[in-house]
Design goal:
heterodimer, A: about 475 residues, mainly alpha, three-stranded antiparallel beta sheet, two-stranded parallel sheet, 15 helices, about 5% strand, B: about 375 residues, alpha+beta, 8 helices, 4 strands, Sorting nexin-2 (chain A), phosphoprotein (chain A)
Chain lengths: ~475, ~375
């Protein structure tokens, strides 16, 4: 599955012998491919055996490692300046606030809504079609107000394409909503009840949030796949939805994490910014997951409470009826009435909590997984660069040997290979610097969005809370003023 | 163990009478038992002192209750229902689970949950003390039962009463007795009573008992949901607090604010659950037991009626055969006397039961409503 890569065409991707490589990286435009593979496959363990010590990104120790050769005849090799010069210094003194986008966040003029869920077809082949309407004044689009029909797998397809293009170079691609077999089956079977209606509404809302997050990203907005998704009336059916499910994407992202864990050269982060951010996101991940779980549990228990309160109310009313002392039976009936009203409020409050807070938390739990994936990709990029350097060193040693043994034909070949490798190593370094820069910008954007999103939801929640409390107060006051 | 001063009786409105006042002034919770300090103030001549205390355990309360039930003399009274066994198992289990999970939560979370569970333990403790006290107060307020010798021994004898719990054989006997009783109960219930009052009471009590049982079960479920929700809110408040302290953006203020809010909400929800528990659940449970005791009274009366009717038949037969007539006459008179005695006292008992019941429900419901109003105002 050949995928177009945004980086410059001269980019040569080297296939890692490790088990975890994203499909995008499998493309090797280098004709020397097979030969390189064999070099790699030759004692893959050995290649990294000497590199098990902790190597700092820009520390002088690396020079020692690289120049530590078995043969004294080898000219001490000064590694290219780029290996030791901390280019990274440029960023270490900037807080993420200073690396800002020029485009003003508030003047973002685009609004997408997902609406009118419609069941298309029958039985197990049925699906829900959603209307995706866009209103914008941006010149990027053909018109200012337009809409298309899309189904769930179209959204998954869009995300899959964006993920494969942008994740590995450091862009935080918003994850698509989760697949749900149970939810969809109910819809397909035609069971129209409260829970299936809720499911459709939940999904519609999630799809809307997904699209808004995607288009708010300045780079993703300009992507042709996004434009096509929003504008074109016909969209080629996304194939192999198995691979396109959020879980599938998650697995791809996790493979990057696996690769990082299997790294034999431990990357000792000397860039404090990245270390701090990694820690920050690890903590956030933990806390948000915990919070999300508790919120979902609360919603569940509140629902139970309202059911049980209603049951009790009926039971109390029955008790009131059998009591033949009229004043008492009136009191019991009023109690039943109050309980019933409070039950309704509990239900309302549960719904309010459910949609706003829980959904946002779910979104962010998934988003942070994407963020962590992007950090892992940076590590992989670094690893690739390091691998290239090590290989280069070996080649240099081999070349020196050849020179010593005076084998001119092989020497020329070796020199050619080395030149090529040098190019790759330089590209590897450029890639690493690019991804680091991209991640800084992305994290800055992400944090701003996170703060905005949470503030909005929290304020909304507090407002709904105040309204509910007021209602409860009013009702209780009314009922008991009557009884007194 | 935790010493705790006993609360005043909450469920029943009793006339306090200077001649005999009983309360539980103290209680100690040990590993697997609770020790109640029963405190008596009395001007009656049969006691050695005017004021004295003894220590009693749950089994001794049960012994006293059973001695009333087995006493034929008291067949015509509603025997105050025995207090339920103190049950801290669930609470202890939760505390243990918390201890095991200590490593997986922050210090603040652990402290908070521990406080919650300790409060729960204390609440259960208070409740069991209240129920044992109510039992004693009911007995002390009853014109006949208060004079019972066993009761005086219970109050005064300052050594262990050495009442062993029922052994397996006795428990089995009890079980069969109850089975027979309920079968009989069905039979007897079918016989229409000549007396309108009792006929009405029978119908009423059967229905009432079932509905109280239902309401009690449902109120328990409702209160448990409340508690579960309160636990969740507690966890949410902790998570938000941690998020707030960890966040370096100005979101931290928001998180901390919402955490505070959830903390307040939790306190209120817990309070509401506790109030409902006390005013509603305990009330329903108590009247479940007492309506059963009233049903038992009706049963005993029915049995006496059946015995009386059988004795009548036996007397007719004896007269017809002109054999053992005197014996049959005596037997018939005894049965008649027993039946009439029971009927007379049962009538009064059932009227008193209604008065007590109505007063207790009214008091508790009003208090519950006032509390809910107070909570609503606070939020």
């Amino acid at each position: 599955n050949k995928v177009e890569l945004p980086p410059p065409p001269e980019c040569v991707c080297v296939k890692l012998s490790g088990p975890a490589s994203l499909p995008a990286e499998d493309i090797s435009t280098n004709s020397n491919g097979p030969k390189q593979d064999s070099l790699f496959d030759d004692d893959p363990e050995d290649l990294f055996a000497e590199a098990t010590e902790e190597v700092s990104l820009d520390s002088p120790e690396r020079d020692v490692l690289l120049s530590d050769g078995p043969s004294p005849a080898i000219t001490p090799i000064t590694p290219p300046c780029s290996l030791i010069t901390p280019h990274i210094d440029m960023f270490t003194h900037c807080s993420f606030d200073e690396i800002e986008e020029e485009e003003g966040g508030d003047s973002f003029d685009m609004h997408i809504s997902v609406s009118d869920p419609e069941k298309v077809g029958d039985g197990m082949n049925a699906y829900m079609a959603y209307k995706v309407s866009t209103k914008t004044s941006m010149s990027l689009f053909r018109s200012q107000d337009f809409s298309v029909k899309r189904r769930f797998s179209d959204f998954l397809g869009l995300h899959s394409k964006l993920a494969s293009k942008y994740l590995h170079i450091g862009y935080i691609v918003p994850p698509a909503p989760e697949k749900s077999i149970v939810g969809m089956t109910k819809v397909k079977v035609g069971k129209e009840d409260q829970s299936s209606n809720e499911f459709v509404e939940k999904r519609r809302s999630a799809l809307e949030r997904y699209l808004m997050r995607t288009v708010k990203h300045p780079t993703l907005l300009k992507d042709p796949d996004v434009l096509q998704f929003l504008e074109s009336s016909e969209l080629p059916r996304a194939v192999s939805t198995q691979a396109l499910s959020s879980a599938g994407i998650l697995r791809m992202v996790n493979k990057a994490a696996e690769a990082v864990n299997k790294m034999t050269i431990k990357m000792n982060e000397s860039d404090a910014w990245f270390e701090e951010k990694q820690q920050h996101f690890d903590n956030l991940d933990l806390q948000l997951r915990k919070l999300h779980a508790s919120v979902e549990s609360l919603v569940c228990h509140r629902r139970e409470l309202s059911v049980n309160t209603a049951l009790f109310a009926k039971s109390a009313a029955m008790l009131g009826n059998s009591e033949d002392h009229t004043a008492l039976s009136r009191a019991l009936s009023q109690l039943a009435e109050v309980e019933e009203k409070i039950d309704q409020l509990h239900q309302d409050q549960a719904n309010a909590d459910f949609y706003c807070f829980s959904e946002l938390l779910g979104d962010y739990v998934r988003l942070i997984t994407a963020v962590k994936g992007v950090f892992d990709h940076r590590m992989k990029t670094w690893q690739k660069w390091q691998d290239g350097q090590i290989l280069l060193q070996k080649k240099r040693e081999a070349e020196a040997k050849l020179q010593f043994n005076n084998k001119p034909e092989k020497l020329q070949q070796a020199k050619d290979e080395m030149r090529e490798l040098e190019g790759k190593v330089q590209q590897g370094e450029r890639d690493f610097e690019l991804i680091s820069k991209t991640i800084r910008k992305e994290v800055s954007r992400f944090e701003k969005e996170r703060v905005k999103d949470f503030k909005t939801i929290i304020i909304k929640y507090l407002e709904s809370l105040v309204q509910t409390q007021q209602k409860v107060k009013n009702i209780i006051i009314i009922i008991f003023s009557i009884s007194y | 163990g935790e010493p705790h001063p006993g609360p005043r009786a909450v469920n029943v409105d009793l006339q306090t009478d200077a001649t005999l006042q009983v309360d539980i002034s103290d209680a100690l919770s040990e590993r697997d038992k609770v020790k109640f300090t029963v405190h008596t103030k009395s001007t009656l001549p049969n006691f050695k002192q005017n004021e004295f205390s003894v220590v009693r355990q749950h089994e001794e309360f049960i012994w006293l209750h059973d001695s009333f039930v087995e006493n034929e003399e008291y067949a015509g009274y509603i025997i105050p229902p025995a207090p339920p066994r103190p049950d801290f198992d669930a609470s202890r289990e939760k505390l243990q689970k918390l201890g095991e999970g200590e490593g997986s939560m922050t210090k603040e979370e652990f402290t908070k949950m521990k406080q919650e569970l300790e409060a729960e333990y204390l609440a259960i403790f208070k409740k069991t003390v209240a129920m044992h006290e109510v039992f004693l107060c009911r007995v002390a307020a009853h014109p006949v039962l208060r004079k019972d010798l066993n009761f005086h021994v219970f109050l005064e004898y300052n050594q262990d009463l050495s009442v062993r719990g029922k052994n397996k054989k006795e428990k089995l006997e009890d079980f069969f007795k109850n089975v027979v009783k309920s079968a009989d109960g069905v039979l007897v219930a079918g016989v229409k009573d000549v007396d309108d009052f009792f006929e009405h009471e029978k119908t009423f009590l059967l229905e009432y008992h079932n509905r109280v049982k239902d309401a009690s079960a449902k109120s328990d479920r409702m209160i448990r949901s409340h508690k579960n929700a309160a636990d969740d809110i507690n966890r949410i408040a902790s998570s938000l607090y941690t998020l707030g302290t960890q966040d370096s953006t100005d979101l931290c203020k928001f998180f901390l604010k919402v955490s505070e809010l959830f903390e307040k909400t939790r306190k209120i929800e817990s309070r509401v659950a506790a109030d409902e528990d006390l005013k509603l659940a305990d009330l329903l449970k108590y009247y479940l037991r007492e309506s059963q005791a009233a049903k038992d009274l009706l049963y005993r009366r029915s049995r006496a009626l059946v015995d009386y009717e059988n004795a009548n038949k036996a007397l007719d037969k004896a007269r017809a055969k002109n054999r053992d007539v005197l014996q049959a006459e005596t037997s018939q008179q005894l049965c008649c006397h027993k039946f009439e005695k029971i009927s007379e006292s049962a009538k009064q008992e059932l009227i008193d039961f209604k008065t007590r019941r109505v007063a207790a429900f009214r008091k508790n419901l009003v208090e519950l409503a006032e509390l809910e109003l107070k909570h609503a105002k606070v939020t």
